[in-house]
Amino acid sequence: MAHYESKHGIVSKGQAELYMGFVDMRNLTGMLPDNYRNSVTADFDSLSATVQGFTLEVRVDERRPYDRIRIVSSSSPVEFCILIHFDDAGMGKTDFHLELDANLNLMMKTMLGGKIRQGLDGIVDALVAVSEGRMPEGMPSAFKPEDFR
């Protein structure tokens, strides 16, 4: 399996508060643009999305309160696992980072490796920006940070 780690970002939310936003997969659908919401279904433990004709299903495999959440693919063209880390950074803030393990062949690793890392870093950057009341870079102007609180 290929292993990727995001950079660390300090989110201006407490560890428990940030964790609770990710613990229920239904919360993640609220962060999507309207034009994607029709192709995504979720319940507390799982999320299913159809993207460019591919169905991707994930489920929460482990919840370690206020520390980490482990999400695994249950139906996907590629087997993968995501660890979402919530580490106390003091002063009501959280050190947030992601790890992804994916079963990629050599060609996919070569083609996608850098893009996967950029995507993970982008998620961290966007969450930090929103927690500080800023618009994440690259987000359409129709989104407002208050939509993600």
The run of helices and strands is EEHHHEEEEEEH
Q: In terms of quaternary structure, what is this?
A: single chain
Shape: globular
Q: Counting H and I runs of at least 4 residues, what is the number of helices? A: 4
Alpha-carbon Rg, integer:
15 Å
**Contiguous runs where pLDDT drops below 50 for at least 5 residues:** 141-145
Helix/strand-derived class? alpha+beta
Strand proportion, as a percent range, falls in 35-45%
Helix content: 25-40%
In a nutshell, what does this entry contain?
This protein has 149 residues and is an alpha+beta fold. It is built from four helices and eight strands, in the order ββαααββββββα.
What does this protein structure show overall?
The protein has 149 residues and is α+β, with helices and mostly antiparallel strands. Helix content is 30%, strand content 38%. A hairpin with a 3-residue loop joins strand 5 and strand 6. It is globular. The termini are far apart.
Give descriptors for this structure.
30% helix, 4 helices, single chain, 8-stranded antiparallel sheet, 149 residues, globular, 8 strands, alpha+beta
